[in-house]
C-alpha cells in the first residue's frame, strides 16, 4: 500500500493507521510504503511512533525506529528524507546492514544536506552493506545542487561490493546545475566492481545548464562490471537545440564490459533546433555492445526537432527554423497562410535549412550571392517556414525600440509564406527577403539592381524597405518597377547562352568526374596522356553528352588533374604510413630511356590492424641537382629529402633493403654505412633475391664446374643468333614445325613452335627458362644449326658444341637443379616475405639439393638421357653417351650441387647478429614451461635486442620479455603470427611490440623496386622521354598503387574535390552600378545583346587562354554599348557596364 496524504490531514491518517493496526497485522501484508511530505503534528508523530514492525517488511520513516526482533529484514524504504532527518534516518537501520537485500531511498531537496551528512551517514552506511543487492535512489530537486554535495553517497556506492542493480531517478525542478550529481556518479562506477545493471531516469521540468556536459565524457571508461545500461529522459519543458546534447555515451568506446545499451528520450513539450541524438559518440570503436536501442518519442505535436548525426555540422547559433519542403509554383496553393502576432512569438532559436546545403535550390544560390555573409540574418520562404521566428538579438532590438512613445511595427514573419503577398506568379519567385536589422528586399529587384522610374528611389533593391505593412508589400508586387524587372528576368531566361551556361553548371561536377575517370584509365593502363582528348570524344559519341561542357582542355589543366589523381592515390595509404611506429624502405636505381639515373623507393609498414603493406613511395632523378655522380651521399640526400616531402618522420626510419652494390651495402662509405651514422639502430638488408642470384653465378664460375658457365654462354649465343636474324628464325621455326609433322601457315607455325628464351645472368629466372626451352626443342635446333652451318660460322661452332652427349647430359643435370633454385627465388620474390620465412625456405631448398646427391638419385638424370637417346625424342640425333661421359656427368653433378650448397650458405650466413636474434619470437622454438631451459630461454638474444634498440630501457625490455614468454608458449603458428600478436599488444608490451613491428616491417627482398623499374619502361618510353619527376611519380602511383578502375570511385572523387578546391577560378567582376530598365515598347539597342559573360550568378571556369580571349571581347562590347548609350570612353571604363546589369540576352559575334 502506498499512500501520499496531503499536509492538512496527516493527523487523521496517523490515527486511522493506529486504530486499524491489529487488522494490518492479521492480513498477509508484505509491502507497506508511506510517503509523507511535510511536518507531522505532535499527536500524529506520537501515534506513528506507536506502530511496531513485526512483518517481513521493515517500515522506516523519519520518525520511526526499526525494530525487527529476530525477524528477517528484506527491504527498507525511506521516504520524505530531508536535511533535518538525514543522519538520524540512516542510523535507525544501520544495525540491519547485514540482512537488508533491497534499499529504496527518496530525498527531497538533497542540496540542504551538508557534505558531512552525506559522507558520514549515507555513504558510510552504504559501504557497510554486505547483503544489499538492489539499490534504488530517488531525488526531488527543488532548489538546485551544490557542487560535490553527493560525494559521500557515491563514495559509499563505490566501496560497496554486494550491489548488483542500481536504479537512479532524478526529478529536476530547478535549472541551476541540474547535472551536478553526474561527475561523482561516473567516478564511483569506475571504481565499483559489483554493479552489473544500471538504470537512470531523469525527469526534467526545467531548463538545463550545459556546464555539466563535459563530465559525462568520462562515462564508464574504466568500469569492468556494468553489462546493461538504460537511460530514460522525460522532458517536460521547452528546450532549444543549443541547450541540449545527449552525451551520456562518452567513454563507451573504451568500455569492454557493456553489452546492452538503451537510450530513450520522451519529449512532452516543444523542442526546437538541432537535436543531436544521432549515432552515439564513441560507439564507432566499441567492440562489446551487442544490443543497442535508441528511441526518441515526440509526444507533443508541436515539436519541430531536426534529428541529425552527432558528427554532422552544428547549426549556427542564430539559425532559426526547421525547413519545410521546397515550394514551387506548382504547389503554391498548398502553402499555409497561418499568421501569428509578432508579440506572441517566443524569443527562441530554432533550426533553419542551411544555405550551404549540397542540394541548393536556385533561390538559395541567389541569396548567397546577393547577401554574402548574412545567412544567419536573412529570412526567405525557401529557407524558413510559417513557424520561423527571429533571433534573440532581433527581438531584443525591437523591444528596445518599442519602449519609446512611438511604437515601431514589427515585420510579420508569416507574410513570407502567404502566396497572395510573397509569391510572384509571373516570375515564379517568392520575392520578399527580410534581413534582420535592415528591412525587406525584393530578390528580383536586387538581382537586377533597378530603381523606381518615378522617384528614382532604390527601395527593395539597393536599400531595404522598412514599411512593415502587408499593403506595402502587395503594392510593390503590383508596381510598375517590379513588372519591368519581370520583363528583364524573362529576357534573361530566354537566352540561348544562358541555358547553355546553366546546363554546363548543372553538369559540371559529373563532367569533371567523368574526365577524371578517363584520365585514371589512361594512367592505369600506361597510355599516353595525349590520348585523353580522343578518349573524351569517344565517351561523348557513346552517350556521355555532358562531357562536351568540359572546357578545361589545355595541357596545363590536364597535368593538374593527373597530379591530383596521383596525390589521391598516395593519400589513400600515406596517413597509415605516417601513423606507424616504424617503417622500412626498399631502394634501387635504374637508368631510364632518357639516360637519367633514377632512384626508385618503396615503403613497407604495419598498420593499426597489424597488417603489412608495401607501397611505391617516390622516384627521383639523382643527378638533377648539383651532384655529378650517383654516389652514396647523393642517394642518402635523395632518400631523406623524399621522406621529408612525404611528411614521414625520419626517426621512424628503422630498416632499408638494397641490392648488393657496394654503393648501397658498403659498411664504411656505402649508403648503409652513412645511414647507420645518423640512425644507429637502423637495420640494413642485402636483398635475398640478389644473394641467391650471386650464389648461382659464383657456383658456375668455379673451376670444377666451369662447364656450367660454358653451357650458359652457349645458350645465350644460340638465342642471339636466331633473335637477331629473321631468316634464321624462320628456318628454325620451319624445321621445328616439320619435325612435329604439323602443317600450318607461317604465322601458325611460329605460334606453335617453341621460342627460345634468353639466358641472362642478371635475370633471376632466365637460366632455368632457357634450359627448359632448349631441352624441349633440342633436335629441331640441332637440325637448324646444321643447315645454317654453311652460311654462318657461329651456327657451325654452336652445332659442334651442342652435338655431344656431355652437353645434353649437362642440360638434363640443369633441368634437375635449376627448378629448385627457381622455386626458392619465386618464394623470395613474394611481396609478403618477411625475415621469418627466409631460414625455412633456404633449409627446404638445401634439403632438396642434398636429395639429388643420394645414391638413388645421383645418376637418375643419366638414365633419363640414355632412354631418350635410344627410343625417345633424341633417338634421331644419333648422339651416343659414352661411359666416360656418364662418369664426368656424375662427378659434375656432385661438384655442382655441393658447390651450390656451399655458396648459398656463404651468401646467407653473412647476417648481422641482430637478425638472428629475432628467432626468439618463433613460438616453435620455445621450450615447455616445465623444461629447465624455459626460464633462461632467449636471454642472450633478447639482451642483444634491448641494447640495440633500447639501450636506456634494458631492464623494462627484459621484464616485458619474461612476461611475454608465457604468452608465446601458447601461440600456435609461425613467427609471423607471433609478431602480429605482439603488434596488437602495445599497451601490455610497449617496447617489445615496437621491436616486433620493426622485425615485421623490415623488408628482406628488393623484388618491389625491380617491379617498379619494370613499370617505368612502358611509362617513360622514347615518345615520352621528356617526362619530369612529378609526372613520373603520379603515373607510377596510379600504375602500381592504384586500385582497378571499378574500385577507384573514392580515389576519383577525392581527386575531383582536391582539384576543384585548388584550381584557380576566374570570375569577371560583378558590377553593382544601378541600371535603368527599358521603357515599355522601347527598342533595345542591339549592342546590349553582345556579351553575357557575367549575366548570371554562376561561376564560369576558364583557363588562362580562354580568359584572355573573353576579356578582349568584353572590352569591345563595352565600347559598343557605350557608344549606343551616348557615353564617353572614360565613362564607360568607370561604369564598367555589362550585360549582367542589363539582364539582356546575348547573340553570337557573327550575328552581331
Automatic annotation (TrEMBL):
Polar residues bias (residue ranges): 346-358
Regions of compositional bias (Acidic residues) in chain numbering: 1131-1152
Domain C17orf113 probable zinc finger: residue ranges: 433-492
Gene3D superfamilies on file: Ribonuclease Inhibitor
Entries under InterPro entries matching the protein: LRR_dom_sf, RNaseH-like_sf, Znf_C17orf113
Bilayer-crossing regions: none
Segments for region (Disordered): 332-358, 1105-1152
Protein name as it appears in the record: Zinc finger protein 862
Name of the coding gene: ZNF862
Amino acid at each position: 500500500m502506498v499512500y501520499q496524504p496531503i499536509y492538512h490531514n496527516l493527523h487523521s491518517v496517523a490515527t486511522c493507521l493506529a486504530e486499524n493496526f491489529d487488522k494490518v497485522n492479521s492480513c498477509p501484508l508484505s509491502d507497506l510504503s508511506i510517503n509523507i511530505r511535510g511536518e507531522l503534528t505532535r499527536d500524529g508523530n506520537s501515534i506513528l511512533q506507536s506502530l511496531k514492525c513485526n512483518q517481513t517488511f521493515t517500515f522506516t520513516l523519519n520518525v520511526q525506529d526499526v525494530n525487527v526482533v529476530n525477524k528477517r529484514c528484506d527491504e527498507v524504504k525511506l521516504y520524505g528524507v530531508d536535511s533535518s532527518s538525514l543522519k538520524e534516518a540512516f542510523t535507525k537501520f544501520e544495525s540491519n546492514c547485514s540482512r537488508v537485500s533491497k534499499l529504496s531511498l527518496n530525498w527531497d531537496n538533497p542540496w540542504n544536506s551538508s557534505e558531512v551528512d552525506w559522507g558520514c551517514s549515507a555513504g558510510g552506511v552504504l559501504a557497510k552493506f554486505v547483503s544489499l543487492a538492489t539499490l534504488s535512489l530517488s531525488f526531488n530537486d527543488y532548489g538546485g545542487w551544490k557542487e560535490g554535495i553527493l560525494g559521500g553517497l557515491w563514495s559509499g556506492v563505490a566501496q560497496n561490493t554486494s550491489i548488483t542493480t542500481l536504479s537512479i531517478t532524478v526529478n529536476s525542478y530547478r535549472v541551476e546545475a541540474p547535472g551536478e550529481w553526474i561527475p561523482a556518479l561516473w567516478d564511483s562506477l569506475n571504481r565499483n566492481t559489483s554493479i552489473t545493471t544500471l538504470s537512470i531516469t531523469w525527469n526534467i521540468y526545467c531548463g538545463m545548464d550545459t556546464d555539466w556536459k563535459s563530465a559525462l565524457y568520462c562515462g564508464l571508461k574504466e568500469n569492468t562490471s556494468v553489462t546493461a545500461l538504460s537511460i530514460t529522459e522525460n522532458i517536460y519543458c521547452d528546450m532549444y537545440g543549443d541547450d541540449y546534447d545527449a552525451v551520456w555515451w562518452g567513454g563507451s568506446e573504451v568500455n569492454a564490459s557493456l553489452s546492452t545499451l538503451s537510450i530513450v528520450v520522451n519529449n512532452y513539450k516543444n523542442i526546437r533546433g538541432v537535436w543531436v541524438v544521432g549515432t552515439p559518440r564513441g560507439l564507432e570503436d566499441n567492440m562489446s555492445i551487442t544490443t543497442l536501442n535508441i528511441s526518441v518519442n515526440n509526444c507533443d505535436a508541436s515539436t519541430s526537432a531536426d534529428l541529425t548525426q552527432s558528427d554532422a555540422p552544428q547549426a549556427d547559433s542564430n539559425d532559426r527554423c526547421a525547413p519545410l519542403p521546397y515550394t514551387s509554383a506548382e504547389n503554391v496553393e498548398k502553402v499555409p497562410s497561418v499568421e501569428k502576432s509578432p508579440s506572441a512569438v517566443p524569443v527562441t532559436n530554432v533550426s533553419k535549412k542551411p544555405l550551404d546545403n549540397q542540394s541548393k535550390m536556385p533561390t538559395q544560390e541567389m541569396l548567397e550571392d546577393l547577401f554574402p555573409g548574412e545567412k544567419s540574418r536573412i529570412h526567405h520562404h525557401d529557407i524558413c517556414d510559417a513557424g520561423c521566428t527571429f533571433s534573440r538579438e532581433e527581438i531584443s532590438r525591437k523591444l528596445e525600440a518599442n519602449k519609446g512613445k512611438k511604437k515601431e511595427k514589427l515585420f510579420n514573419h508569416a507574410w513570407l509564406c502567404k502566396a497572395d503577398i510573397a509569391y510572384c506568379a509571373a516570375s515564379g519567385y517568392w520575392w520578399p527577403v527580410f534581413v534582420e536589422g535592415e528591412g525587406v528586399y525584393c530578390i528580383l529587384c536586387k538581382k537586377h539592381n533597378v530603381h523606381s522610374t518615378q522617384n528614382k528611389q532604390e527601395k527593395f533593391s539597393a536599400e531595404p524597405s522598412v514599411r512593415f505593412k502587408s499593403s506595402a508589400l502587395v503594392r510593390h508586387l503590383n508596381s510598375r518597377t517590379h513588372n519591368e524587372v519581370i520583363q528583364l528576368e524573362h529576357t534573361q531566361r530566354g537566352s540561348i547562352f544562358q541555358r547553355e551556361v546553366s546546363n554546363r553548371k548543372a553538369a559540371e561536377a559529373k563532367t569533371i568526374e567523368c574526365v577524371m575517370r578517363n584520365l585514371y584509365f589512361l594512367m592505369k593502363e600506361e597510355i599516353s596522356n595525349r590520348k585523353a582528348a580522343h578518349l573524351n570524344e569517344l565517351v561523348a559519341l557513346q552517350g556521355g553528352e555532358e562531357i562536351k561542357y568540359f572546357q578545361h582542355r589545355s595541357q596545363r589543366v590536364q597535368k593538374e588533374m593527373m597530379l591530383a589523381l596521383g596525390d589521391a592515390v598516395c593519400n589513400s595509404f600515406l596517413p597509415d604510413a605516417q601513423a606507424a611506429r616504424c617503417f622500412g624502405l626498399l631502394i634501387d636505381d635504374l637508368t631510364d630511356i632518357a639516360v637519367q639515373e633514377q632512384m626508385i623507393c618503396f615503403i613497407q609498414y604495419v598498420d593499426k590492424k597489424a597488417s603489412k603493406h608495401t607501397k611505391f613511395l617516390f622516384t627521383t632523378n639523382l643527378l638533377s641537382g648539383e651532384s655529378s655522380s650517383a654516389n652514396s651521399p647523393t642517394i642518402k640526400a635523395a632518400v631523406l629529402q623524399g621522406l621529408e616531402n612525404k611528411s614521414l618522420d625520419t626517426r621512424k626510419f628503422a630498416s632499408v633493403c638494397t641490392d648488393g652494390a657496394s654503393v648501397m651495402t658498403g659498411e664504411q662509405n656505402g649508403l648503409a654505412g652513412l645511414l647507420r651514422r645518423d640512425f644507429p639502430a637502423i637495420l640494413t638488408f642485402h636483398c635475398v633475391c640478389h644473394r641467391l642470384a650471386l650464389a648461382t653465378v659464383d657456383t658456375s664460375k668455379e673451376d670444377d664446374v666451369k662447364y656450367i658457365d660454358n653451357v650458359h654462354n652457349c645458350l645465350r649465343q644460340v638465342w642471339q643468333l636466331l633473335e637477331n636474324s629473321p631468316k634464321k628464325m624462320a628456318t628454325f621455326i620451319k624445321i621445328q614445325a616439320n619435325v612435329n609433322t604439323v602443317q600450318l601457315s607461317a604465322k601458325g607455325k611460329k605460334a606453335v613452335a617453341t621460342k627460345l628464351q634468353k639466358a641472362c645472368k642478371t635475370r633471376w629466372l632466365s637460366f632455368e627458362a632457357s634450359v627448359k626451352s632448349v631441352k624441349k626443342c633440342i633436335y629441331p635446333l640441332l637440325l637448324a644449326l646444321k643447315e645454317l652451318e654453311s652460311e654462318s660460322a657461329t651456327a657451325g661452332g654452336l652445332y659442334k658444341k651442342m652435338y655431344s652427349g656431355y652437353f645434353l647430359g649437362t642440360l638434363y643435370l640443369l633441368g634437375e637443379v635449376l627448378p629448385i633454385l627457381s622455386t626458392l627465388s619465386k618464394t623470395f620474390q613474394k611481396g609478403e616475405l618477411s625475415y621469418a620465412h627466409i631460414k625455412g625456405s633456404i633449409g627446404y631448398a638445401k634439403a632438396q639439393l642434398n636429395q639429388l646427391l643420394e645414391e638413388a638419385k645421383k645418376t637418375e638424370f643419366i638414365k633419363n638421357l640414355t632412354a631418350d637417346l635410344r627410343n625417345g625424342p633424341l633417338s634421331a640425333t644419333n648422339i651416343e653417351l659414352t661411359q666416360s661421359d656418364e662418369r664426368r656427368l656424375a662427378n659434375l653433378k656432385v661438384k655442382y650441387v655441393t658447390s651450390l650448397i656451399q655458396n648459398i650458405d656463404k651468401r646467407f650466413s653473412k647476417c648481422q647478429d641482430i637478425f638472428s636474434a629475432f628467432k626468439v619470437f618463433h613460438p616453435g622454438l620455445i621450450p615447455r614451461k616445465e623444461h629447465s631451459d624455459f626460464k633462461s630461454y632467449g636471454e642472450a638474444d633478447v639482451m642483444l635486442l634491448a641494447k640495440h634498440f633500447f639501450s636506456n630501457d634494458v631492464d623494462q625490455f627484459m621484464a616485458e620479455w619474461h612476461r611475454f614468454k608465457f604468452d608465446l608458449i601458447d601461440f600456435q603458428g609461425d613467427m609471423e603470427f607471433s609478431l602480429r600478436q605482439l603488434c596488437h599488444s602495445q599497451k601490455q608490451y610497449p617496447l617489445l611490440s615496437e621491436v616486433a613491428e620493426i622485425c615485421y616491417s623490415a623488408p628482406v627482398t628488393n623484388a618491389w623496386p625491380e617491379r617498379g623499374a619494370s613499370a617505368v619502361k612502358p611509362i617513360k618510353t622514347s615518345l615520352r622521354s621528356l617526362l619530369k619527376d612529378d609526372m613520373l611519380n603520379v603515373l607510377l602511383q596510379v600504375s602500381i598503387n592504384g586500385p582497378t578502375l571499378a574500385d577507384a570511385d573514392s580515389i576519383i572523387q577525392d581527386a575531383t574535390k582536391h582539384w576543384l578546391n585548388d584550381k584557380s577560378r576566374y570570375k569577371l567582376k560583378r558590377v553593382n552600378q544601378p541600371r535603368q530598365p527599358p521603357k515599355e515598347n522601347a527598342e533595345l539597342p542591339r549592342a546590349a545583346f553582345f556579351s553575357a559573360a557575367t549575366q548570371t550568378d554562376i561561376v564560369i571556369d576558364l583557363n588562362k587562354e580562354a580568359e584572355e580571349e573573353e576579356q578582349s571581347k568584353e572590352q569591345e562590347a563595352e565600347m559598343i554599348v557605350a557608344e549606343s548609350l551616348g557615353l564617353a570612353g572614360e565613362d564607360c571604363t568607370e561604369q564598367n557596364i555589362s550585360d549582367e546589369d542589363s539582364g539582356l540576352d546575348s547573340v553570337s559575334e557573327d550575328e552581331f
